[in-house]
What we know:
Radius of gyration: 21 Å
Shape: globular
Number of strands: 13
Structural class: alpha/beta
Amino acid sequence: MARTTERGEGPAAGRDASGPARAHGEQDGEPAAASAGSPSDDPARLRRERRAAAVRNAERLLARPGHLGTLRQRLALLDGVEDLYDLDETADVYGSGVVAALEEKVAGLLGKEAAVFFPTGTMAQQVALRCWAGRTGNNTVALHALAHPEVHERNAFSEVGGLRPVRLTGEPRMPTADEVRDFEEPFGALMLELPLRDAGFVLPSFEELTEVVRAAHERDAVVHFDGARLWETTVHFGRPLEEIADLADSVYVSFYKSLGGYGGAAVAGPRTLMEEARTWRHRYGGMVFEQFPAALAALVGLERELPRLPEYVRQARRVAAALHEGFAAAGVPWARVHPAEPHTHEFRVWLPYDAEVLLEAALRQSEETGTLLFTDHWDGVCPGLAFTEVSVRAEGLSWTADEVKAAVAEFVRRLPGTARA
């Protein structure tokens, strides 16, 4: 079932630990600022501030989300960037200079003729798909019910983009070739989110993906990859990035979700499509005067984080196995790690407690021991059941399986009905 919580680009609002609906304002769990006039003792705001402080102050954690840091810490991301780009060059103006260099680099990495930089992924995908609609003569976009535009973008495809989304499936898995081939009405484009975040960062096999793409092409539809996190899929697919991207007619990628940049996105595809995309970017208000901070941060991410993502994925699989064993050893009656072997460096943990209870245990563990095992918020699905997303990045590479299990034991001790720390 699609969740109402929203993550990604968009206007900031707020959400507490139990996960009521909120507008976009976080990259995987950023606490939103309190609205004007909010009381200083607002419980939801205080929980968000407490969690942000725990992330900043923790001595050990599996990933430290950069966007929760201070402005000084975020600016430090650009330390050494002069080794990647000539800072004596004139600053970019409406997409020139460093922005154009970034576009060229992305096109090369994805094996496409050209790429276009966008301030947000929401804008990037609307533009790409409406350009395809003009070419195919069909504005219908087939996608998953849990795809990002369906869950998190306030019906932007239909309300703004002039597109008509239709849902292939609502099952928590990728669509199958048969579902694409046998869908009851024509569609001009098939959009595939890789990985499918709201199903648990899941991916098909490369062979399944190839069959799905083939099924769409047999129906004379183009294929567009929502590849916000495509960068991290190479281990699961066992293929280089260019070979994965080659399956699609166009590909969207994000510069902050996996790469840790300040923001921004790109779409890559045929040169003529990208020329039209520039026109629509201007019409959408995305032709920003100067974007060098985001472009430089993206270059940093491509240089420093992209090569490390396979290492993060392999460590995430070790961490996931240790979490499973740790909860079993601690006697938690029902605990799930999904996928059991993560497809990327991100996955979900489900526990039989209310979201507020789990957040409190995580914060207490951090404040009392310096270890923050779960950095993200918890989403309550129903009374007594919640999940969180776990990401493993550079900070988590040093963790051994025994250290993960010990941290699980400390976390469980802070849950109701267990021995207190």
